[in-house]
Design brief:
Elements (H helix, E strand, L loop, with lengths): L9 H9 L1 H8 L7 H12 L5 E4 L5 H8 L4 E5 L2 H10 L4 E4 L12 E7 L11 H10 E13 L4 E3 L6 E4 L1 H10 L3 E9 L7 E8 L1
Parallel strand pairs: 1-2, 1-4, 2-3, 4-5, 5-7
Antiparallel strand pairs: 5-9, 6-7, 8-9
């Protein structure tokens, strides 16, 4: 089965690179994370029982938070400025430079992959690539947790940094299943002011 084309991540990488300091300042700490998301990710990660990958970790706050809780976790991002910031801000955690479309890790290495809003810039023709890569590096029975923006249909929207995509939970679940996972849970919530933005989370097992 085809994994689909690899996304052209260069423009996304460059867009985040130009605004890395601003992004890290506004969204690069756990103070910016919704309490429901903290509970969900913490509970999921604590139950993995092995090494975790924070795929597309951005400024590294989730990786640092999980490492501070004693979990074996590595953060990965394709934006050099994010990796540099993460290493400075969370010296107790490990961060690697690389793309979610070509993970630099061995097959079946991880017990869990967290992709928290790191796949939002993949369009429907390229979303399969990072999902298949996650399946490749996960052990049988290991878990995947995806955070994403929800909508009534798959459609692009004007994200603050560069174009992103909304996904109906069912449509994203179909892509996840096609990559070899069993979807076990989906969650949705709507943020409040200044503008509602529906959020989703999907948990799956390889």
């Amino acid at each position: 089965m085809s994994t689909g084309p690899e996304a052209d991540t260069g423009p996304v990488r460059d867009a985040y690179g130009r605004r890395a300091a601003e992004y890290a300042d506004q969204l690069g700490t756990m103070a910016s994370v919704h309490p429901a998301d903290v509970h969900l990710v913490t509970t999921w990660a604590s139950g993995r029982g092995g090494p975790l990958l924070d795929a597309g970790c951005g400024p590294g706050h989730w990786t640092g938070y999980l490492a501070d809780r004693g979990l074996d976790v590595v953060g990965l991002d394709q934006v050099p400025a994010f990796v540099e910031h993460a290493r400075r801000s969370h010296p107790g955690a490990r961060y690697d430079l690389g793309s979610v479309d070509a993970l630099p890790y061995d097959d079946e290495h991880f017990a869990g992959v967290l992709a928290w809003y790191s796949l939002i810039h993949h369009d429907p023709t390229s979303i399969g690539r990072p999902l298949w890569e996650a399946a490749r590096v996960l052990r049988p029975g290991a878990g995947l947790l995806i955070g994403f923006f929800t909508g009534d249909r798959v459609e692009p929207f004007g994200h603050a940094v560069t174009t992103a995509y909304r996904w109906p939970p069912g449509a994203l679940a179909a892509e996840v299943r096609a990559a070899g996972f069993t979807v076990v849970e989906t969650h949705t919530r709507t943020a409040g002011a200044p503008r509602p933005r529906p959020h989703g989370a999907l948990l799956a097992v390889r």
